[in-house]
Amino acid sequence: xxxxxxxxxxxxxxxxxxxxxxxxxxxxxxxxxxxxxxxxxxPHRHMHSHTHAGSGSHQHGDEAPHDHHHxxxxxxxxxxxxxxxxxRGHDHDHGHEHVHEPEPEHVHRADGSIxxxxxxxxxxxxxxxxxxxxxxxxxIMEKNNAYANSNRAYLVGLHTLALNFVSSPGSGKTSLLVRxxxxxxSRFPIAVIxxxxxxxxxxxxxxxxxxxAVQINTGKGCHLDAHMVAHALDDLALxxxxxxxxxxxxxxxxxxxxxxxxAHKVVVLSVSEGEDKPVKYPNMFAAADLxxxxxxxLLPHLDFDIGLCVAHALRVNPQLQTLVVSARTGEGMAALYxxxxxxxxxxxxxxxxxxxxxxxxxxxSGAAE
Amino acid sequence: xxxxxxxxxxxxxxxxxxxxxxxxxxxAVRVTVGALGHxxxxxxxxxFDAVSRGTIVEGARLDIRIAPGEAWCLDCAKTVRVADRMxxxxxxxxxxxxxxxxxDLRLDELEVD
Lengths: 369, 113
Description:
The complex is a heterodimer of chains A (369) and B (113).
Chain A: E1 106-108, E2 114-116, E3 132-139, H1 142-157, E4 161-167, H2 173-184, E5 190-196, H3 201-207, E6 212-217, H4 226-236, E7 243-247, E8 264-270, H5 277-280, H6 282-287, E9 290-294, H7 306-316, E10 321-324, H8 333-347, H9 352-368
Parallel strand pairs in A: 4-7, 4-8, 5-6, 5-7, 8-9, 9-10
Antiparallel strand pairs in A: 1-2
Chain B: H1 2-21, E1 26-34, H2 41-52, E2 61-67, E3 69-73, E4 78-82, E5 97-101, E6 105-112
Parallel strand pairs in B: 1-2
Antiparallel strand pairs in B: 1-6, 3-4, 3-5
Helix pairs in contact in B: 1-2
């Protein structure tokens, strides 16, 4: 076995397989290996096609054929260990792996990504490593989902309908909510959780209606998560039998994957945005139960084709419902209120619905332990 | 980029497993990402490097398996394979598909010392 790179080649005597460093690759950059630091020029591409039958372009000091963790068929769909003696903190852009030195290293993958600092033993050779494999099978979203389920159980227990409004920035979510609150606040208690990267502007607009609002600033975050919402729920102290609007960060991508514990995601698309948003951002439209085509008052000035937009949306989500509304003129808002009240009525149904999330919470917290 | 927070969750899960299972280093992390999910594998790789620094996971290899997309065709009344959310049913050509699988995001295995 080669004890330098751990390549597992039984025919490579240790002393014949010396990896002299620094050495030169047939690359468009120079590595200065064996040092704690080096300079690369990036981005670079490795386009070499050397062979490893002893006459290769590497200077191994070894004429014997050896297995060198290369796979020059360049059909990598795996990422094996690769030890360059690099300082940390740079990116490569090539898709092969060398194993040079059992010192600080990184992992080059076929797609060009790299990991640093895997340490000596990360020269991963099946059969040589003493590592063990642990079967984990855990959902990476499980923490978010546990919070979401607990939020949902809490909200269902309060008979409060929670709607998570998602859209790109500028679709008119806040204006929609302001209008809806003004129209509905005499019927039931309404509270709002506002998510924005910065500022409390939206929460202030909501509070001007008299509704209770908590602003969450996500800072660098691009979406609300269920943990943030759990904190906001603590602050809100909701009254029962009400309505909770969650206005997510304006972003048609990231919020799609995060369950906050809402009853429904409502995606808002303004008619000035183009009919094909549902197929451009399918995950969000797939995650939503209701699509609101907002700013319908602008339709006479636009070429927006509502039928085409709905057709696109139904391609990604055959069960998506659509309402055409204008927060400005109030057009279509009555249909939205009817939709909301029909969902609220379902919440008031027997406890069978409420029981389900509670079970999920137990299951989720059990899984998390 | 939500991949950042997802990758943080991944690292947290692993730190979590270390407390339970007691290992001193992680050599490889194997995850499954669904082809129809909301996660871009390349973005996860990018984030993994950044997020894992200074943690038990630092330097570990990240292997990402892509789980194929599955959908229920409302016309054929059966489960079919789909490449993306825009796909038509490979059997009937219609687009009345309800995604039923392939939005996984799962930590499958750890290779540890």
